[in-house]
Amino acid sequence: MSAMSVTSASASASSPVSTSASASERPTTAEPGQGESAQALRPHAEHAFAAELTALAAQDDRPRPARWKLSPWAVATYLLGGTLPDGTVITPKYVGPRRIVEVAVTTLATDRALLLLGVPGTAKTWVSEHLAAAVSGDSTLLVQGTAGTPEEAIRYGWNYAQLLAHGPSRDALVPSPVMRAMAEGMTARVEELTRIPADVQDSLITILSEKTLPVPELGQEVQAVRGFNLIATANDRDRGVNDLSSALRRRFNTVVLPLPASADAEVDIVTRRVEQIGRSLDLPAVPDGIEEIHRVVTVFRELRDGITADGRTKVKSPSGTLSTAEAISVVTNGLALSAHFGDGVLRPADVAAGILGAVVRDPAADRVVWQEYLETVVREREGWTDFYRACREVSA
Q1: pTM (global) more than 0.85
Q2: Does 34 map to a domain?
Q3: Rounded distance, CA 339 to CA 273, Å?
Q4: Domain count, the chain
């Protein structure tokens, strides 16, 4: 089968016609360290971890589904981390239950699409990107869901200059990332699916059930080739969420990504991500601020859970989610403050303002929650005096 086939929607078949640029024709970004991409603020996963993916592919002798770069076992190893027989260390991309990753990877090896569901900050986008990078070697076939995402972003659009000059034709067709993934047997990604209007969401139903995308203007259809699948992410905590129709939800296998089970696991996640972000921003090393990372994670978990870590004191929870992603943001911003306006060591004063901004989303109700937490928990905690003073100062 060719990398792309378009067949007539009528009973008589027409010859294959390409409806998207091939992978080799698409603009690509060189791996970090080569040319301008060495300056990329956030390299794509397949470039940032190219050495690990190459090492896995070289030693991966297990069966691979059609057009997969790695076997399902190697994809799971890439996400969860491990040491290869030759001593190559694969860093963990996701810290959580192994079974969750195995189910997600197995889903992609079937004809079912994958829906990663969870509250904000549970690494849905991060897992989605790395799954696509490991499976297809390309994580850029992405549709970013918003309230204004049009149907063309999922199906296809038109080059209006060509359309007006010559009418509907192959040259006037502008394929979406999903159409390109279908054509080339790749993995497409749809981020924040529940933020997309419901009628636009449902344009995925035919794609996921029939594995075809009709192009009625040309009397043709694009059929997905083996290797195609789709990963979507969604949460139901943000405002403006559009629930998935039951028809669309049935087309997905849903995997729920939980919040980190323990404080140590969350500290590990925050530390790893901050180190990666910090390297691209030339920020100080994380080990110098590990105490503050523990403190930020403790505050977030206690306010999120409504009880202190020792289980002795109940506290009120603010309106925000206080996710792991927000903790990463607070620590990264604190490192930047310490680097540019301090001595390069992360201290309580560097994270206090960030914590206040994350906790107090509702100026009236959340501020009361925060003040009560400071006075009843932080003020009395041994070794937290500097942190209490810093938080009081920015909260005044």
Answers
A1: no
A2: no
A3: 18
A4: 2
